[in-house]
Amino acid sequence: MGQSVSERLLAWYRQNARDLPWRRSPAPYAVLVSELMLQQTRVDTVIPYFNRWMERFPTVSALAEAPEQAVLKAWEGLGYYSRARALQRAAKQILAEHGGEIPASRVELERLPGVGPYTAGAIASIAFGQDEAALDGNIRRVLARLVDLALPARSPEGEKALWALARSLLPAGQAGDFNQALMDLGASLCTPRKPACPVCPLAEDCLARQNGTQAERPVRSERQRTPHYIVTAAVIERDDRVMIAQRPADGLLGGMWEFPGGKVRKGESLEACLQREIQEELGAQVKVGTSLGMYKHAFTHFKITLHAFRCRLVEGSEPRPVKASAIRWLRLDELDDYPMGKVDRLISQRLRH
Fold first, then answer.
1. Across 101-120, average pLDDT
2. Measured between alpha carbons, how far is 66 from 43 in angstroms, rounded to an integer?
């Protein structure tokens, strides 16, 4: 089956490959950047970010030597900000240990921050022509349907079976195109819902199609209920400025800036939560004023509903970074210069407009 699958798929790819900016000149650095951006993010979303990133940080050394705040600002809106920090750490490691040249071997690639087995395989095959397999969400779906895999695709057993299958199908010397062909097939035809089986180049080989189980493949592991939290945020105003706080580097949205606040405890009012959080985070007391809206957002493992309020400091109370890394008093027209998560950016836009 391997030869048939690879030949059919590569022939289809030659006619239907997506025109993506990192494919036009697949230099190792461009492939590294694109692969980290594409982790858990759609291609259409990534393209403008990739283009701006390559203009701002065109080389490994440019990224390694850039201020972290500039890196986070360039990433703002893509989410999963640990990827941005990992990418910069990888650039520094490449500069220090490899003279600025991205290593070609899978083993060396996996030693870079943010680079796991899939990303290493993709870079090694696409950028360096290595015969290495890759297994992202699209590829996992295509292969699970191809062999009608009854195991949960992300279980240890399912992962082991799919990696073995991916390696067995690799055409020697063409792994980069083959991996990208699988990605494109999953993105365009072998989609999660309503796959276009009649026009799929692998239709004759696909066991899920033969068995009528396309909609049931890949098998998903049982998902746990996603926690939901009620959260508050304080827009503390003084004269013509508002205060923002920098989150600790090692936590969620590390290094980003926010309007300070936190989770509501059981039996606690929104106002009481905000006053407690500001005391704990900034060692200050505030008077809670009018609402600045309610905002909903989903993170990877939980969801929030955030309530923002205008606040004023109690006379004689002066905030300081107790749990925050730093604080700034800014004019509204300065807020765009500081990298923020999605919800805090929405609050800042509301303040400005």
1. 96
2. 25
- Active-site residue among 35, 132, 258, 281? 35
DSSP codes of every residue in 311-347:
EEEPTT-----SSSSEEEEE-GGGGGGS-B-HHHHHH
Residue type present at position 6: S
Q: Which residue has the tokens 């909903």?
A: 296
Q: What is the DSSP letter of 310?
A: E
**Do residues 302 and 228 touch, judged by C-beta distance below 8 A?**
yes
> Rounded distance, CA 180 to CA 184, Å?
6
Backbone torsions φ then ψ of 335, nearest 5 degrees? -65, -35
Residue in the structure block whose two tokens are 């746990």 = 224
CB neighbourhood size of 299 (10 A): 16
Task: Report which residue type is found at 90.
Answer: A
Can you tell me the distance from the alpha carbon of 74 to that of 77, in angstroms, rounded to the nearest whole number? 9
Query: ∠247-237-326 over CA atoms, to 5°?
Result: 25
Q: What is the 3-state secondary structure of 255-285?
A: CCEECCEEECCCCCCHHHHHHHHHHHHHCCC
User: Is 258 tagged catalytic?
Assistant: no
Looking at residue 2, what is its pLDDT?
Answer: 52
Torsion over CA: 77, 245, 347, 309 (sign):
positive
Q: Running DSSP on this structure, what letter comes out for residue 228?
A: E
Q: Which of 134, 129, 100, 98 is nearest to 115 (CA)?
A: 134
Name the token pair of 229. 């939290």
Distance CA 348, CA 353 (A): 9
Residue 1 has pLDDT above 60, yes or no: no
| 3-state secondary structure (DSSP) of residue 103 | coil
This prediction has a pTM of: 0.90
Amino acid at 145: R
DSSP-derived 3-state class of residue 99: coil
Contact call for residues 141 and 184 (beta carbons, < 8 A): no
Indicate if the pLDDT at residue 248 is higher than 70: yes
Amino acid at 226: T
CA distance 4 to 12: 12
